[in-house]
Amino acid sequence: MTLSHAAKEMGKWCDGVTGVEGSSGYLALIVVTAFGWLWINDSLPFQTNGASKLEEEEEEEIPDPPRNFTITQLRHFDGTVDKRTDEKKPVYLSVNGTVFDVSNGRDFYGPGGPYEVFAGRECGAALATMSFDEKLLDDVSACEKLGVGDRNELENWMEKFEHYRCYPIKGKLVPDDKLPPSDRIISMEELGKYDGNLQDVPEEFAGYGAAPIYVGAGNKVFDMSFGGVPMYGKNGPYQKFAGKDVSRALALMSFDPMDLENTDVSDLEDTKIKVLNDWINTFETKKGYPIVGKLGKENTE
Known about the structure:
alpha/beta; 4-stranded mixed sheet; 13 helices; 10% strand; globular
């Protein structure tokens, strides 16, 4: 059947249905008009604007900025079910201090996998020597003691994870012996240096994945770069707290500039002091932010 013959047959069918001779022309006009209305109103699913909107919706989320991990924090990311959420936790592991998200390799590194012992652990030396010896886990310094052959094998694992498997790098593992002592006295001047605005890691913190972010609460100074960069880092919702003793602001749950600058809590009632201590407990126990010094004042706890 030719195109012209098909058009004639369609015209006869339209005339028969509508009882109006030449109605196919009106039908065509209606279709064209409707198509034009949909186009103008961005309602066509294949239209350029619609496609760009779909692309925007499917655009990947912006990854979190690099962070630091303590040994204890890293242990949390072992792929098991989180009792608080009933959801599976991500699977992270560290290779020579670089923390990878290997959740896409959950069958290998997650619970029940052949390498599950490495989940949530530093395992660079163990991978390089193909050993499951517990003594080699959580020991970044063991990587420095490897022989030439094992060192090459370690570098091969690093390249495999980063470029072949394309596992996302989440940050750096900072061993406990590389953390500042928790009993050192930190002056207000030093506290103010680490206000979330540093983009580069200072030389004295070589091995960190993110510059320190200090927050004073009670008599303790916490480093929020160990998981709190999006909140306390540059342009974060709580960056106003960074580089300050915010004991009073936390106790009062306040962003008032006067409370941010005033460190005195002696005039606050017991209920407010309890709020402050609850925040300190959250920082220390729930979040696991390391204590990197103290303010040298009477403890509020």
